[in-house]
Design goal:
With 289 residues, this protein is of the alpha/beta class. It contains twelve helices and ten strands. α5 links the parallel β3 and β4. Bound molecules: zinc ion.
């Protein structure tokens, strides 16, 4: 999908009171779970992988894109290939060359001015190529310290978010309002909905909630009402996959070599999870013509 269509998809979500799920299959085998779920629920969806995940599973952006495009032609679904958290612009550019339709440059750990400057450069590179850009301001902590290597959370400032979004021209903005990556140590993390609403009133870019795994459905519903139109869901998929296959984190090549019956079972179970999230959390089902 090209940028204008992706923006239209996000706008429809915003106006329709639902969110687009951005799911991390974490290996090439489970790409089909997300695509099947999107087709079955007639839900838009994004299939994402982060720079960290590429490292964990010994994959590169080209492998993942090749697997995605080989699979996606078998489905009648509205899906987008998205590069999640990436700190190195060179990796972003490689992913764009490999066919990624949307990319995240995460400069949230950089000094503000540097985040702004590099995000603007990434936007200048991506937009003429028809690719959407997600940026991050404030930093989303990692509950299990897996994704970010830190559990510190720095909330996004609404005024700064406005200035940042306008200055960079980013299409999507990941905001830090109290969610965390990974598995939550507490059942009901406190989300700063007032802050979210304040950001929404100032920023026209689509707002993204990271750390969607393990949040109760009502929390997602409320976040969507306050203006979130994309929710990232990663950890939940991996937990189901590991449970079904009895494997830990392993190189993607090993996952691909699992017996077909095991892979099929994992694909089906993760598909069921994605469908549940679309139906009960994101409210994104039955949205396609
Ligand atoms: Zn994230």
């Amino acid at each position: 999908m090209k940028r204008p269509e992706i923006l239209a998809m996000l706008r429809q979500a915003r106006e329709g009171g639902y969110a687009v799920g951005s799911f991390s299959p974490r290996n090439t085998v489970l790409i089909r779970s997300v695509l099947s779920a999107a087709e079955a629920e007639r839900s838009p969806a994004m299939v994402q992988i982060s720079a960290n995940e590429l490292g964990w599973f010994s994959l590169d952006a080209e492998d993942f894109a090749r697997a995605y495009f080989a699979a996606v032609k078998d489905y009648r679904a509205q899906t987008v290939l998205h590069l999640d958290h990436t700190k190195d612009p060179e990796t972003v550019y490689r992913a764009i060359a490999a066919g990624f339709e949307s990319v995240m440059f995460d400069g949230s750990r950089l000094p503000y001015e540097e985040n702004l400057r590099i995000t603007r450069e990434v936007v200048a590179y991506a937009h003429p190529r028809g690719v959407c850009v997600e940026a991050e301001l404030g930093s989303i902590g990692g509950a299990d310290k897996l994704e970010t290597g830190s559990d510190e959370t720095l909330y996004t400032d609404p005024l700064q978010a406005q200035e940042f979004a306008e200055a960079t021209g980013c299409d999507l903005l990941a905001v830090s309002v109290g969610t965390a990556h990974g598995v939550y140590p507490v059942k009901n993390p406190r989300i700063d909905f007032e802050r979210l609403a304040a950001i929404r009133s100032r920023v026209s870019a689509a707002l993204v909630l990271h750390g969607g795994s393990g949040l109760p459905p009502e929390t997602i519903h409320r976040a969507v009402r306050e203006g979130v139109s994309k929710v990232n869901i990663a950890t939940d998929l991996e937990l189901v996959f590991q449970q079904v296959t009895g494997t830990g984190r392993q190189p993607n090549a090993l996952t691909e070599q699992l017996p077909q019956s095991v892979k099929d079972q994992a694909i089906a179970q993760v598909q069921a999870l994605c469908q549940d999230r679309m139906r009960h959390y994101l409210l994104s089902c039955d949205r396609l013509a």
